Structure formats: structure tokens, C-alpha cells
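User: Need the bound-state model for pyridoxal-5'-phosphate:
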Amino acid sequence: MGADSPSTKKGGIPRVELPADARLDTLAVREGLPATPWGENSEALFLTSSFVHPDAATAARRFANEEEAFVYSRFSNPTVMMMERRLAALEGTEACIATSSGMSAIMLLVMGLLKSGDHVVCSRSVFGSTIKLLQGEFGKFGVQTTFVSQTDLTEWKDALRPNTRLLFAETPTNPLTEVCDVAALAEIAHGHGALLAVDNCFASPALQQPAKMGADFIIHSGTKYLDGQGRVIAGAICASTRFVDEVFTPVMRSVGMSLSPFNAWVVLKGMETLSVRMKAQTASAATLAAWLEAHPAIERVFYPGLKSHPQHELAMRQQGGQGGAVVSFIVRSDAERPDDRGRSAAFHVIDQTTICSITANLGDTKTTITHPASTSHGRLTEAQRQAAGITQGLIRVAVGLEDIEDIRADLARGLNSL
Ligand SMILES: *Cc1c(COP(=O)(O)O)cnc(C)c1O
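Assistant: Bound-state model below.
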């Protein structure tokens, strides 16, 4: 980095005093900014749009980026910075930049890195809005994307072009929990002079840290497990200081997909319990997946923690031996209604629940249940859904923190009366 690059001029904003070898669970609770002179124990919520300077010359230095200080909350705010530092610590990256949503994190990534004429290779199993953003919105501006198999590395390699700058992956995917090999994708990207971004929403840093496997950018929807209680929309990119300071912050400054300090504060406090929530929700999901797999009304279960999962071994290696909290399954179709391909059976199971929330969100302490074919994937044609494996009998459950016996009984009511 050059001697006069912005990050070397910083240092005006102090760090929390923590042992250099502090472990993840400690960083999740303690990383951020030092308390104000008032000595608050819980992090302060700075709801202010701008910051006051002691004199005009100082203001000039701060606007010229010669002195690090908080200026304007479109691109600098103490509460947002605490959230960024904490998430960077959990992901094991040097830096992080928070955004207003998971989707705007991906928008910032592409706006910062790419220009018209550049090419992206992306898994075809990623979040639906990610496909729409890359193909539709960025397609309009001349950034082309090739969509490939989540799990077939040969397809990723074959899709590379001289102008391929970015590989984009998500693992495990929604709703089929397909797992891709992050280290192998990093090798393919770097061997081609390209960069790798991984959307880490589903596993969260409590289960996997893609940066340790070679990913250059970690994308988050803070809306999911980081908040963890279904309250706010938020997003972030974790990356090196160089990319955050020199590539993404200038775009944030002029485009303004900023995270509100209030939402940042909610996510900041959510991260304190991320690890215990993920452990408990994963344990419950594993119990539920094993029970579902043995149930006569179930055709197939998708859960990385099960031996029957096609990428079980890779998932266990990559996710610290944990399958995550999302379980999907196909119910056997109603013998009397073979024409609806399992839809009425799936609706029956969903409608018989009284505890699970019927909503497409996930990452909440409340268990959520959804029928992907008619909700998150409802805009696809039936042929596109079949190709993606989103069948009419498929149900996705994102397991929360309720007693798993109650959730099991909630699902058994419908499954036992099909
Ligand atoms: C929800 C989600 C997003 C988008 O995040 P928002 O905060 O809703 O904008 C991106 N990727 C994955 C995997 C998601 O689950």
C-alpha cells in the first residue's frame, strides 16, 4: 500500500484493548470501539447524521481523508464501525463494510470491483435475488454472468473467460443445502487472476470462515443469523483493508447503500449470541433431520449433517463438523392427487403446524417453515423449478430455539395425517 493511501493516515480511532490471541467467542462479545467517557457497558447507539469538528482546519483534514474521524453517517458512524469490526473479527478478515441489506452488499461488491465488459461466474443455486441482480441489473450495465453447477468444479473452470474477474458462490444454498468446495473455487479463481466472493449467510462465521479457505470477499445478509432474531435488514462485505478502504468505501461515499446505526446496533448485539445460537439451532436441526429421514411420509431429506447428503464429507470438513440450522425435505405426494406433484401434501403439513412461523425468512430464534416452489421460487416457471430441484413437495424448515420436541410434534401432526 502506498505511503499516502487513506488507511495509513488513519489511527485516529482507537481500538478496544483485547489480548492479541483473544478467541472468537470473546471477540463476538468484546470487539468494537472503546466505551465513551461515560463508561457505558453496553455499546452506545450513535443516532446522529453528522459529527462536529473542533475547527475549520480539522474539518478540512478530515474531509480530505488525512485524519481518521467520524464525519457523516453515510460512510462513517461509531455504532456501524463497532459492528464492522466485530464481524471482521468473526470472519477473520482485516476489515468489513456494512450495508443496508444483504442485496446491497452484493451491489457494492460488483460496483466496486467490476466495469462494463467484465465477466462473472456464479453458481446457479445462489439466492434468487442474487441471480436477478447479476443477470438483470448488472447485465444492463454490460457485466455478464455465466451460471454454473454449484458442485461441478469442471463447469466453473470451463466458464472462465479472459475477462472473468469474479467468481461468486454461496454455501450451503437455499433451500437444498448444496455445498460447494470453497478452497477449490479459490484456487480456480486465483489461478485465473480472478477473485472469489462467498455468501456466508447460511453457515455464518460460527460454522465456517471462508476467508481461511482463500475467499477474498465474504458477503453477509445481517438479516439472518447475525441479527438472529428476525428484527432488521442489514448486510456487509468482509475483505482486506485495502479493498474496504480503497475500493468499497469510495463507492459507499458516493452511492450511499449505508446501514442505519440503529440496525447496526441490533446486529452488533445479535453477534454476541451468534455462536451459542448456532450451536443450539444446529443440534436441534440435526435431531429433526434424522427423525424426518426415518419418517414414512418423507421421500427425501436435504441436510449436510446427514450421511445421505451428497456433499456430507465436504460439508463436515468445511463447516467444523456442523450441518447448520436449515433442513429441507420432500413429502410423499398424496396418492389421490398425483397431478399436483406433492403440493397439496406439502401445504397440508405446513398448515397443520401451530408453532412454526409460515414465512420465507430464516436465521430467527423462531422456527420458520416455507414452501419454496410457491414463495421464494414462485417466479420461476415449473420447468426452471424442476431443473433447480425445487419440487412441489419440498418444504424448508429453518430451525429456531424452541424445544425441538415441540417442533417435531408440530410437524408430526401433518405428516402423520397425510
Ligand atoms: C437473505 C439472503 C440474501 C439477501 O439479504 P437481504 O438482507 O434480504 O437483502 C442474500 N443471500 C442469502 C443467502 C440470503 O439468504
